[in-house]
Amino acid sequence: MENCKEYEPQRVEYPKLDKNGDRPILQFTHYNRQYKHPWVGVGDMEAMLLKTSVYGNTCITKSNIKSKYSKVSKHMPLSWGYYDFEKG
């Protein structure tokens, strides 16, 4: 709460509707201000969640969990992929 007293309140203002009542369209026009990156990479990994029990073969219930954090499943990696977009 002490931070709230340091700053003035803010208000969000949305763009006004045009003459036809349509919402304005946000457009990017300053292409000369873009960052020049030589390449961009995208990666992804898929995994399967396997149920596990840290208490042997017993079912995990609220009554037998002794910790705030308990393992109830394990990630088993299945596949991964990476694609490199080169500037061309």
What are the main properties of this structure?
88 residues, extended, mainly beta, two-stranded antiparallel ribbon
What does this molecule look like?
The protein has 88 residues and is mainly β. The chain has one domain. The protein is built from no helices and two strands. It has strands at 39-51, 73-86. The model has no long low-confidence stretch (mean pLDDT 77).
Calculate the mean pLDDT score and round it. Answer: 77
Number of strands: 2
Give the total of domains: 1
Distance linking N and C termini? 52 Å
Tertiary shape = extended
Q: Outline the low-pLDDT stretches.
A: none
Largest sheet: 2 strands, antiparallel
Helix content: under 10%
Task: Output the number of helix runs.
Answer: 0
User: What class, by secondary structure content?
Assistant: mainly beta
Question: Which strand order spans the largest sheet, edge to edge or round the barrel?
Answer: 1-2
Radius of gyration: 26 Å
Strand content: 25-35%
Q: What is the chain-wise order of helices and strands?
A: EE
